[in-house]
Amino acid sequence: MMLAACACFLFAIDTPAEMSGWKHADTEFAHRVEQALEKDPELLRNHRGYLAYLQANPSMARAEEAWLDLTLFKELNRLNAAFDESLQKDVEAQTMFDQFYDQLGRDSSLRETMESLQRLEFNEAKPAKHAGQPFSEALDTLKANPDLAMRFLHNPDRVKPAPNALTAYVEQFKSHPELLKELVDAFNHLTSNPLAQTRVFPWWQSLSAFDTRSGGAYGRLMGYFLHQPSQFWVWHQRHLEWAKDAQARTWMRYWHRVIRRNASLHNEYSHYLRLLRQHPEEGTIERQWASQYGPAPSWPPKENPPLLLHYQLPQDSNLPRTPNMPVTPKPEKPSLKQSDRIKRPEIQRPQKPIMPAMPRKPEKPPK
After folding, report:
1. How many CB atoms lie within 10 A of CB 47?
2. What is the pLDDT, as a whole number, of residue 94?
3. Alpha helix positions (H), 90-145
4. CB of 259 within 8 A of CB of 68?
5. What average pLDDT does the structure give for the chain?
6. Model confidence over 291-330: pLDDT tens digits?
7. What is the per-residue pLDDT for 366?
8. What is the per-residue pLDDT for 125?
9. Does the pLDDT at position 14 exceed 80?
10. What is the C-alpha to C-alpha distance for residues 237 and 60, in angstroms, rounded to an integer?
11. How is 146-175 classified by DSSP, letter by letter?
């Protein structure tokens, strides 16, 4: 029973496209996705390896399955894709982001402190139409400046001039001592951990510059999570699971980016996986593939994945394209022939008067 409960993604290996539980439209849809995979041996190899890896790692399968549910939210899908592609373009930022989650995965005490700060931010955030949140901005400033944070939290009046984000919230800190104490305890724990200085704070300190380079990709994603905290914890847990196996993380990230770049699969692959989960009947397309191509490959491969070109997300990719409106030609200006134009009357200008001759100086008589 426990094994069945844990391996919630095992359906992906044990499900055929032709089964009595599927609707006819679902069967046709599954065939279309499977044929798109079969057309490219590399796509099929990674798809089969990805599912086989999830079968062998139930905790990773649970994290992927939970994230699969969130792919139904188009806005989250778009914001997460923008953040992920911004990381793909920025090797330094991706390295610091991975180190951040690597350390959280290794150090449970550090992770609990980080998560307590995140819960505090969710609790303090107020629903608003604008993206900015006073407490979030103040907390981001504290996380990016740990030394300043310790001075400010112990005595806000000592930091002068204080950053604008902190000045705007200083009265709130003074009137809520319990909030101030919670922050002091969290930052005391963080700053006393040497690995937080090298693995956690660098990521927080880089966010301002990263958001400038990426057009606010991380800030918009976190702004979305302020109003959907439950979805953040699914996203967060997935990255913690990825951190348990760095090689698998590299290949899973690569695989999802490949799917995003594929015109035939990027809108259909996650729906295909959800169909497999919903109908875990006996029989399998994998058996057919195994007989044709051999057993599922060992995955992730030991070598690094191929390099991907930078990808520009299409704007409003989830919305139907608007048909081109007919272009109404502008009326041409009437052209007048030279003979039709009104001639200006000729004006005779008066001639300039002739200047009088200057008088000559009289000659001197001879001596």
Report:
1. 27
2. 97
3. 91-106, 108-124, 134-144
4. no
5. 83
6. 999 999 999 999 999 999 999 888 754 433 333 333 334 4
7. 67
8. 80
9. no
10. 10
11. HHHHHHHHH-GGGSSSPPHHHHTTHHHHHH
- Characterize 95-129 residue by residue with b for buried, 16 or more Cβ atoms within 10 angstroms of its Cβ, and e for exposed: ebbbbbbbbbbebeebbebbeebbebbbebbeeee
CA pair distance 158, 147, nearest whole angstrom:
13
Burial class of residue 300 in the structure, from the number of CB atoms within 10 Å of its CB (0-12 exposed, 13-18 middle, 19+ buried): buried
Hey, how many other C-beta atoms are within 10 angstroms of the C-beta on 337?
Answer: 6
Main-chain phi, psi angles of 88, to 5 degrees: -60, -30
Q: What is the dihedral of CA 183, 188, 189, 194, to 10 degrees?
A: 130
Alpha-carbon span 217 to 24, nearest angstrom: 40
Cα angle vertex 229, ends 226, 234, to 5°? 130
Dihedral of alpha carbons 262, 264, 268, 270, sign: negative
Q: In angstroms, what CA-CA distances link 37 with 27, 31, 258?
A: 15, 10, 12
Q: What is the mean pLDDT of residues 13-22?
A: 45
Distance CA 315, CA 82 (A): 11
76-97 pLDDT tens trace: 999 999 999 999 999 999 999 9
pLDDT tens string 171-199: 888 888 899 999 999 999 999 999 999 99
